[in-house]
Amino acid sequence: MRRLSWRRAKVTFLRLLHLHDSPQRTAAAFAVGVFWGMCPITPPFFGLQTGMALVCAFIFRLNKIAALIGTLISNPFTFVPLYMFGTYVGSVVLGYDLNVNASAFRHFSLTELFGGSKEAVNAYFAGNFITATFASLAGYFILAWFIGRYRRLRESRRKRLKLDV
Fold this sequence. Notes:
Number of strands: 0
Distance between the termini: 35 Å
Structural class: mainly alpha
């Protein structure tokens, strides 16, 4: 009886992790996490990016752990350069000439950051949506390739070891 309950718990845990998902589904979960991790809406509320990634993972039945790992792209060490770069991209795309204040990103006050400029706020949101989209797409393709390659190598090693025995 004890073994049966342990087996049931293990199966439930593996289902939660979605370890048997295809590389594409796992990469999609990671990409969802990257998008929400870099999304310009979530920085003032860092818990929101994790929550949104988990909600999307539950809705689309994706790997929750991969989605959570994807959100770690923005953390207290990386969010300043990420959002500065996104704001720069937005200013280039929208054709604005902005001077972004790096120290204001540390406190994350939009008014202090951009001096209340509507153009700067537009550049921030547009640029960071663009960078979040491209980063999540790049993350998807890179991770899908990597997981597929890893699984093929592992399977060929298993076959080779079976032949040697």
